[in-house]
Specification:
It is built from 14 helices and no strands. It is mostly helical. Helix 2 (about 20-50) runs parallel beside helix 9 (about 235-255), helix 6 runs antiparallel to helix 10 and helix 11 runs antiparallel to helix 14 (about 335-355). It is globular, with a radius of gyration of 20 Å.
Length: about 350
């Protein structure tokens, strides 16, 4: 929105042409999101406290988590609104990729909000029933998947990119719809499962988003795309602005969410952020890199699947508690140690994912 205004004013004042530069708008998106988060964070926390939107803690969880009972949750409303506002200001709204990303944040945020509302306001420990939650996630994922295919204008937008292969990039065609469906549902639930320790889900999301911001910039540059043997997608340039907005909003939220947390993001934040990472990965055609760079999300999800599967088939548990971050807590690791080590692993995985762009 602001970019269009400055484009118009630049006709009369050349200095304002700086707003045409992608890097400048990306920096502004980061600073805008960070500033809004830091300024609005205390107000948001107070409002959540007044509304009694307190966290419900599992009785069978780590004992250190019992003191978190009542800590304000649903802070994801702040993250989502900050990202949307920053993108509305600094992204070019005539870009379909931007529109799809904004729809993703809003729709998945609403699903998460419904789940959180039932838990903390209606005091229903189950929240939104699994079948209804999965139904709405599936409906949103299917709609977005069809939109990705429907708005694709070039073969590059439906190409399957495989790490380490430069000459084998098959055109998925309409098969991108089921792929996108699984990426969106998987990513949204994976971040949701990771959101169990102070700061863990948000710092992991920020780190992965930073990596995809760089990929979006490379993908939108014809020279770099040709050099790296990746699809050239000019429209992906605006995804850099969205990624920096995620980083700014995420770091601002981390200011209040770091140990000991003053607020939790809740499902309203985790579902939206996971789906947003998923659709960004799909739009830059690097969904397989999401598996690498978001390895912590994958590990958390697999640990739950293995735990549930093992218990149902054998009656025995593989981990002391799932998701796996709770396993390490039960093993005696302090919460900050789990957080820091998982974040270090994420930094390494993001770097490995970026390295694969060259190893083709």
């Amino acid at each position: 929105m602001a970019s269009f205004i400055f484009d118009y004013l630049a006709q009369y004042l050349d200095t304002l042409r700086v707003f045409e530069y992608l890097s400048f708008r990306a920096a502004l998106a980061f600073l805008t999101a960070l500033t809004i988060s830091l300024c609005m964070g205390p107000y948001c926390i107070r409002r959540l406290q007044l509304l009694h939107f307190g966290q419900v803690v599992r009785k069978d969880g780590p004992e250190s988590h019992l003191k978190k009972q009542g800590t304000p949750t649903m802070g994801g409303v702040l993250i989502n609104s900050t990202i949307v506002l920053s993108c509305l200001l600094w992204c070019r709204l005539d870009n379909i990729y931007v529109i799809l990303c904004l729809i993703t944040v809003v729709v998945y945020g609403l699903i998460g909000f419904a789940d959180d509302y039932l838990k903390v306001v209606r005091h229903d420990p189950h929240g939104l029933r699994a079948k209804y939650k999965y139904f709405w996630q599936s409906a949103a994922a299917l709609g977005l998947s069809c939109a990705i295919y429907g708005f694709a204008e070039t073969r590059a937008e439906t190409t399957l990119v495989l790490p380490f292969f430069k000459d084998f990039m098959p055109d998925l065609g309409f098969l991108i719809i089921p792929l996108a469906y699984f990426v969106l549902t998987g990513a949204s639930n994976a971040v949701n499962l990771t959101d169990g320790l102070d700061g863990l889900a948000i710092i992991t999301t920020v780190t992965v988003a930073a990596g995809f911001g760089l990929i979006a910039w490379l993908t939108s540059n014809a020279n770099f795309a040709a050099y790296l043997y990746i699809p050239y997608l000019p429209k992906a340039a605006e995804l850099l602005v969205i990624c920096t907005a995620i980083c700014g909003a995420g770091l601002g939220f981390l200011w209040f969410n770091t140990y000991p947390a003053e607020v939790f993001m809740g499902d309203v934040g985790s579902l939206a952020l996971g789906a947003l990472l998923g659709i960004i990965a799909l739009l830059v055609r690097e969904e397989l890199l999401l598996v690498i760079m978001g390895g912590i999300f994958v590990l958390e999800t697999i640990s739950v699947i293995l735990q549930v599967g093992s218990y149902k088939m054998t009656g025995r548990r593989i981990f002391k508690m799932a998701p796996i971050h709770h396993h390490f807590e039960k093993g005696g690791w302090p919460e900050p140690r789990v957080f820091m080590r998982f974040w270090i692993i994420t930094v390494v995985l993001v770097l490995l994912g970026l390295i694969t762009l060259k190893l083709r």
